[in-house]
Amino acid sequence: MSGTSKWFLTAGPELPWAPRVFCFPYAGGSPRVFLDWQDRLGEEAEILAVCRPGREHRAAEPAPTIAELIDGATAAIAELAEADGRPSFLFGHSLGALVAFEVCRRLPAAIAPRHFVASGCAAPSLLPSERVRRIATLTGQEFAEAVGFFGGLPADVIADHEMRDLLLPGVTADFHMAVGYRYRPGPPLEVPGTLVVGRDDPHVQADQVEPWTTEFAAAPDRCWVAGGHFYFEADPAAATSILGRLVQADQHVELI
User: Fold this and answer.
1) CA-CA distance, 4 to 198, in Å (whole number)?
2) What's the confidence (pLDDT) of residue 140?
């Protein structure tokens, strides 16, 4: 497996005519969550789920710092974009949105994504939040219950000692990675943006979303959707319909 290809998981054969949608998972989340979205996008776009070291087929690799994750993902995406010039879109949820934001900042203008969708994430200037900092200091059952606040661990998993011990190391590594983030002000993104937040998200409120506007040269669109922090778990249509519309709109502009 090449250095670039190991960064991504896909749901099927390559779609060389289609734009790529790079999806960045949330803390503790498997990139495979996004592969089910491929059927909903059909052949209009190709989902590439970003897989960090220490996950999935990269389980033997040590978990990276957030800086290492950002740099590695940026290099892998840039290599693909420079190789064939296919348009790209970035989608990240929660911690994944923060990583995608920093990747978007680093990609050269010539291969910049057509659109960046930040889902379920407070503005980068507010991160890491005090809640995330506190959770990262916890261990065992206390940590599992605190993570459950986000909806990331079901109650039956939290109650199951064996299952909890199996899943917690990866979640813990991601929380430790998250608290290593240090925001640095920079030029606003020229890339268009969309902010997606569940109306019942207990973690991301309107006042935490508002500072995102300073990170874009043009005001990002805001989409408040039904559901909580993981609004797409029961039905990914809220996310995939947004991505589908963005891809279709971009293709229409190219044809004109």
Assistant:
1) 33
2) 84
